């Protein structure tokens, strides 16, 4: 035992890693104008889908600030795009295919992608506007452990450079830029970033690019995240209404 070792040069205690890594998001509403910044009432799980389906928002939930409008015109399952929820198969292409197909309904009443019970490994994919990602009961999205499925993109404007490494950064697992009317919700499904790999890369000094967020929506408005559990993120959840 070496009690004299300065704290900074040891690995951080496991609680610190997990305190950063575990983000449980119940409801996150971002909008710029006309609405109060903070909800005055407690969050009630479940309102996201209620709003999504067009019913009247509960006065007790900040989901009420979300302007969902009518139910999505089209609902599809990730299985229809070749998804396999076996905890091993990579669903990166399935999610990207699904989003490419569903974004066409953006101006035709919007769309919803259901993720059924199962363990769905995936790398990064981009969301689209007028869209709901819905994790059914028992659905777990698992962040891919293959770095190549987290492509490197431009650094954030607000940093002007990579955060942990100069240059580009890994894109977020669930990513969106310049979107509006986006809901990420479900029946208490889980988004597990499996971020341990990225922390290992960092601590063993082989991380080449800044870690990707678990969810990042930038320059985006009218966003609602609810009724989900977020665990083991590589770099948290980031929602921003402006560009950087
Ligand atoms: C929210 O999650 C709970 C717990 O799983 C579930 O019973 C409920 O149906 C969900 N609400 C909606 C609106 O999806
Ligand atoms: C989203 O839906 C609204 C209302 O139907 C529509 O005006 C808007 O153009 C849609 N956005 C996109 C990006 O399709
Ligand atoms: C997702 O969007 C980013 C820009 O925000 C882009 O660089 C990337 O290629 C997109 N990924 C896919 C799979 O379309
Ligand atoms: C939601 O899921 C979390 C983690 O899996 C669990 O701890 C919690 O009890 C669940 N809540 C409900 C209402 O099912
Ligand atoms: C660093 O950690 C990664 C992820 O666990 C592992 O794949 C890699 O082999 C490690 N490299 C070294 C030099 O220990």
Automatic annotation (TrEMBL):
InterPro entries: GH28_Enzymes (IPR051801), Glyco_hydro_28 (IPR000743), Pectin_lyas_fold (IPR012334), Pectin_lyase_fold/virulence (IPR011050). Keywords: Glycosidase, Hydrolase, Membrane, Transmembrane, Transmembrane helix. It comes from the Eukaryota. Gene3D superfamilies: Single-stranded right-handed beta-helix, Pectin lyase-like. The chain crosses the membrane at residues 12-32. GO terms for molecular function: polygalacturonase activity. This is Polygalacturonase. Belongs to the glycosyl hydrolase 28 family. It comes from Stephania japonica. Pfam families: Glyco_hydro_28. GO terms for biological process: carbohydrate metabolic process.
